[in-house]
UniProtKB/TrEMBL annotation:
Class of the enzyme per the UniProt entry, highest EC level: lyase
Source organism (scientific name): Arthrobacter livingstonensis
Single biological process term from Gene Ontology: carbon utilization
Protein's UniProt name: carbonic anhydrase
Binding-site list for Zn(2+): 52, 54, 105, 108
Cofactor, free-text remark: Binds 1 zinc ion per subunit.
Length: 207
């Protein structure tokens, strides 16, 4: 496949890949020896995926991508820290990537742990506590909207808040979005169906 250069082209290519995955008709592009050899001295990924570390959320597979297509950053619960934000800024500043995707999923363990901590007041041990503290604002926002929010509603809220914070916290990302060179979208992934649904967008993806 040809490399998309605009946010709208990147968005169309990404979601076409997810559709193939859902329909069990994946084409597994850009995974041969010729592609591998072409990437030894350069890369031009068209999408940057900031997703949860969950083993069921393998970005290149669920969007039917290949080598050199996606610049992937993953943390449990797609929690932003300085190194994650720096990695995303690198993709914008040095690789000119036209699309940033924040990718959450059903039944997220990190969000589930945060929900439990908010309900009981008992915080987890070790550095898991840091994850929970960073996800707590999203869980509280979801509960303010609906006191009976379930974990999946909290995941959706967390995806929205994470995507918005990327633009708010990073002048580099905000500048690229303002110049319409980059778009930021938030997706929630349905584990059973394999489908990624749009819940947030900021930028020219052609909707």
């Amino acid at each position: 496949m040809s490399t998309p250069h605009t946010p709208a082209e990147a968005w169309t290519t990404l979601m076409s890949g997810n559709r193939r995955f859902v329909e069990a008709s994946a084409s597994h592009p850009n995974q041969d020896a010729v592609r591998r050899a072409s990437l030894t001295s350069t890369q031009h990924p068209f999408v940057m995926i900031f997703g949860c570390s969950d083993s069921r959320l393998a970005a290149e597979i669920i969007f039917d991508l290949g080598l050199g297509d996606a610049f992937v950053v993953r943390t449990a619960g797609h929690v932003i820290d300085n190194t994650a934000l720096g990695s995303l800024e690198y993709g914008i500043e040095y690789l000119d990537i036209p699309l940033i995707v924040v990718l959450g999923h059903d039944s997220c363990g990190a969000v589930t742990a945060t929900k439990g901590a908010v309900e009981t007041g008992a915080m987890p041990a070790g550095f898991v506590r840091d994850l929970v503290e960073r996800i707590t604002p999203s869980v509280l926002a979801s509960l303010r909207k609906d006191k009976d929010s379930d974990v999946n509603a909290m995941v959706e809220e967390h995806v929205k808040q994470t995507a918005a914070r990327l633009v708010e916290n990073s002048p580099i990302i905000a500048g690229a979005v303002a110049r319409q060179k980059t778009a930021v979208v938030g997706l929630t992934y349905r584990l059973n169906e394999g489908r990624a649904d749009l819940v947030y967008s900021n930028g020219p993806i052609g909707l």
